[in-house]
UniProtKB/TrEMBL annotation:
Membrane topology designation: Single-pass membrane protein
Tagged with keyword Protease: no
Organism: Galleria mellonella
Gene (UniProt): LOC113512898
Alphabetic keyword roster: Electron transport, Endoplasmic reticulum, Heme, Iron, Membrane, Metal-binding, Microsome, Transmembrane, Transmembrane helix, Transport
Protein name: Cytochrome b5
GO molecular function, one term: metal ion binding
Localization: Endoplasmic reticulum membrane; Microsome membrane
Coiled coil: none
Annotated transmembrane regions: 96-115
Any GO CC annotation of this UniProt entry: endoplasmic reticulum membrane
Length: 116
């Protein structure tokens, strides 16, 4: 069973000695990862004790990064404190799908024009 951790508790972990962040309603203790983070420790400290979902998604982390972070998960927000942050990933995926569709349409138009 996953431990529920409130924002009140998370906010206490906002310094170099204890860095907890929320990403997609899950709570991560990334204190031991500060020195290893490819983006530098400042990127993590900026969202220490806060919801870092938007920052995390804006950077466009790889699947490898998403797998690495699993080992730092220590809990989840209580249902009453959760946000719809999972929609950020869905919007990001939708953005890429729309771009791919637009690209396919352009390629189709160009091919039709030059093959006619």
């Amino acid at each position: 069973m996953t431990r529920e951790i409130s924002f009140a508790e998370i906010k206490k972990h906002n310094n170099e000695k204890s860095v907890w962040i929320v990403i997609h309603n899950d709570v991560y203790d990334v204190t031991s990862y500060l020195g290893e983070h490819p983006g530098g420790e400042d990127a993590l400290l900026e969202v220490a004790g806060k919801d870092g979902t938007q920052n995390f998604e804006d950077v466009g982390h790889s699947e490898d990064a998403r797998n690495i972070m699993k080992k730092f998960k220590i809990g989840t927000l209580p249902p009453s404190e959760r946000t719809g942050s999972s929609n950020i990933t869905n919007c990001s995926n939708l953005k890429w799908a729309v771009l791919a569709l637009a690209g396919a349409i352009v390629v189709g138009i160009v091919l039709k024009k030059y093959l006619s």
